[in-house]
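Tutorial handout. Part one gives the primary structure; part two gives the three-dimensional structure as tokens.
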Amino acid sequence: DNELPIANCQNINVPLDNSGLASITTLQINNNSTDNCGIAAITATPTSFNCSNVGQNTVVMTVIDVNGNISTCNSIVTIVDTQAPVANCQNVTFQLDALGTYTATGAMVNNGSIDNCSISSYTLNQSIFTCADIGTNPYTLTVTDGSCNTNTCTSMITIQDVVAPTAICQNFTAQLDALGLVSITAGQVNNGSNDACGIASTTINQSNFNCANLGTNTVTLTVTDLSGNVSTCASTVTIADTVSPLFISTPANITNTAVTNICGRVIYYNAPTFGDNCTATMSQIDNSGLTSGD
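Part two.
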């Protein structure tokens, strides 16, 4: 018998298993090979595959008849990876920078995701965080393998603002009123304090002043942002008294008629009274040095 067997091959698709492995038998690629006297054996090579074989592979099938005649054919074995990766997330905390932003990657949320072959990417449904995201919220991580199979998991991401505001002070001069009092506000001391996520309040440690505070005073401005972070700065507040004292009463004009042979006269009058929002003194400037009863 010199007649060769007829080797007939067929192409097949073979999926990898969870371990990234696959194997075939000749039964899968043989397509009714025949021989006039009978077939003794059919072999194929290769028959074992892994992730590195994803795609088309040429497999040679060899048919041997009972008389040792041999024929071969080629089968295209396409190895496919249809196993989705196992996505594992972890909860994380991110802190905004001084500009109020944070950029995260999927790898920061990944917690040991696995695939039977390899993982090509980790993608968060949101990667740039701002002040609007402060707090704890769920975010989705998408894990993609080398064959574009995907799976997702959920991570609780906490966004924090731990950056203190920038406190900027200015010096200020305030003038006492007619009662010797003055009040100032934080706004008069604040000189553009700022925070990336917003300021909740500005306060000062002293707002009310009186005559005892005339001159310079150190006032502390406290700036608190929306997350409770605090900064302070110091301002020099000068308290001035620009209100003039007032006479309350003054003596009336006095006219005395000279008396012959009497050179000295005693004049009596009521001393002037005066008031001031703080304190004042009175002095006589007529250069006589005489007072009532002199």
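Part three, for discussion. The chain has a mean pLDDT of 93. Helices lie at 26-29, 106-109, 186-189.
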